[in-house]
């Protein structure tokens, strides 16, 4: 029997994601270490009571995410749970929820805007945006909410510029994005959020047809819709995915990285005091590994019976990649629970692995490489405005982070 359709008898299964220890919120839930040590994979209870297999070892996750028998296509009957952005509007194709060759075909239409070379050309503009956000925050004076005043505006402005979306509507996007991020949000609430965002993007597509701009949506209309390769609706839906992912995850990383560095003054000093871009870039990789904010959104389904990581998995079973656990696997690197911004962490899976690895990872890296040193050098006296235990963490969200971060300087 398919594990994805049978939710009976799951009450005794441990929930996924697990609960982080209050004393060390940067660390994954402590039970993940036990899951790595256990044979096979952990059977767990996911959204809406769905039983799933959870891969928590580094090598197991790489195997799961590179096996063509493990599908990302959430249009398959019985696909477990729901994606962060549920299928809507007649199951329009979204590149992240497709399998090759369809996935590769659609992803290739978007790749050009997210290459390392293209993103590097944006670095001066991203630096200007970071400087402007910092200047506005300083002008307002302390205390400030680092999330609202700095971490969220930078990636939101960047992805809005890339897509040609008016940043003046960012509160609308944030409100509906928060609904989509909530692990326990109702399906009705998520559907309403998707419909609101999709309707907005579809209206924007119509505007770009009448008044083209220098942006990704205009390019897709000119190069792909005009040739019949994409529909206007597919452009809107994939624009929704990029807008959602492009600001939510990086803003969480900026704020959470700042808090982690404030909690580790020696590591903070190494980022703040260097003039070497390579040192900053390496520090960003370690922060990505150490924090790994994707809590439970890398979900797959087996298309046939198979064995991975010593675990027999039936066709139709759901499989989740526990990225935070994998990046803390001692089989991947020594002392994985220590934050060390000087070490080599090449090969971490904070952006996933395989063909579905995050499309926007180059953009996220540059945003972090700019935002963190700009903040730390500009405000050398930066400190928390509240006791650490009063910081509100996003335990209930798909992307881990903090709801707000009150700071002084």
Structural notes for this entry:
The protein is of the alpha+beta class and 409 residues long. The chain has 15 helices and 10 strands. It has helices at residues 31-37, 58-66, 102-111, 116-121, 123-140, 146-151, 153-163, 170-181, 187-210, 216-225, 232-262, 265-272, 277-291, 323-326, 361-378; strands at residues 42-45, 51-55, 70-71, 144-145, 299-302, 306-308, 311-313, 318-321, 383-384, 406-408. A 5-stranded mixed sheet has the order 1-2-8-5-3, covered by helices on one side. A 3-stranded antiparallel sheet has the order 4-10-9. A two-stranded antiparallel sheet has the order 6-7. Strand 6 (306-308) and strand 7 (311-313) form a beta hairpin. The chain is globular, with a radius of gyration of 21 Å.
Observed structural traits:
alpha+beta; disordered N terminus; single chain; 409 residues; 15 helices; three-stranded antiparallel sheet
Spatial separation of the terminal alpha carbons:
58 Å
List low-pLDDT spans. 1-8, 83-90
Strand order of the largest sheet: 1-2-8-5-3
Mean pLDDT: 91
Which band does the percent of strand residues land in?
Answer: 5-15%
Instruction: Please estimate the helix content.
Output: 40-55%
- Report on the biggest sheet: 5 strands, mixed
Shape: globular
Structural class by SSE content: alpha+beta
- Separate helix tally: 15
Rg, please? 21 Å
DSSP E strands, number: 10
Order of helices and strands: HEEHEHHHEHHHHHHHHEEEEHHEE
């Amino acid at each position: 029997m398919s594990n994805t359709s049978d939710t009976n008898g799951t009450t005794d299964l441990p929930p996924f994601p697990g609960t982080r220890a209050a004393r060390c919120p940067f660390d994954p839930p402590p039970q993940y270490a036990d899951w790595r040590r256990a044979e096979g994979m952990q059977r767990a209870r996911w959204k809406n009571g769905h039983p799933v297999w959870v891969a928590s070892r580094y090598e197991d996750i790489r195997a799961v995410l590179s096996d063509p028998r493990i599908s990302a296509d959430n249009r398959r009957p019985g696909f477990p749970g729901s994606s962060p952005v549920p299928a809507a509007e007649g199951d329009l194709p979204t590149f992240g929820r497709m399998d090759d060759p369809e996935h590769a075909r659609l992803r290739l239409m978007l790749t050009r805007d997210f290459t390392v070379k293209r993103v590097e050309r944006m670095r001066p503009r991203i630096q200007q945006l970071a400087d402007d956000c910092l200047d506005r925050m300083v002008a307002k004076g302390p205390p400030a909410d680092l999330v609202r005043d700095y971490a969220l505006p930078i990636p939101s402005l960047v992805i809005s510029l890339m897509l040609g979306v008016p940043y003046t509507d960012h509160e609308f996007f944030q409100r509906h994005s928060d609904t989509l991020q909530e692990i326990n949000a109702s399906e009705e609430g998520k559907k309403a959020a998707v419909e609101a965002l999709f309707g907005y993007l579809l209206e924007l597509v119509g505007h770009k047809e009448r008044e083209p701009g220098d942006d990704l949506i205009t390019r897709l209309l000119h190069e792909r819709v005009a040739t019949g390769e994409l529909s206007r609706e597919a452009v809107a839906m994939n624009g929704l995915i990029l807008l959602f992912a492009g600001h939510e995850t990086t803003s969480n990383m900026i704020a959470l990285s700042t808090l982690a560095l404030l909690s580790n003054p020696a590591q903070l000093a190494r980022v703040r005091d260097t003039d070497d871009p390579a040192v900053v870039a390496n520090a960003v990789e370690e922060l990505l590994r150490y924090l790994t904010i994707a809590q439970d959104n890398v979900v797959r389904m087996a298309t046939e019976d198979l064995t991975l990581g010593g675990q027999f998995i039936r066709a139709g079973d759901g499989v989740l990649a526990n990225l935070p656990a994998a990046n803390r696997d001692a089989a991947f690197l020594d002392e994985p629970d220590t934050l060390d911004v000087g070490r080599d962490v090449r090969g971490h899976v904070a952006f996933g692995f395989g063909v579905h690895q995050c499309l926007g990872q180059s953009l996220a890296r540059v945003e972090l490489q700019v935002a963190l040193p700009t903040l730390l050098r500009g405000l050398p006296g930066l400190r928390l405005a509240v006791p650490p235990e009063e910081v509100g963490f996003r335990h209930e969200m798909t992307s881990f982070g903090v709801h707000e971060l009150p700071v002084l300087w």
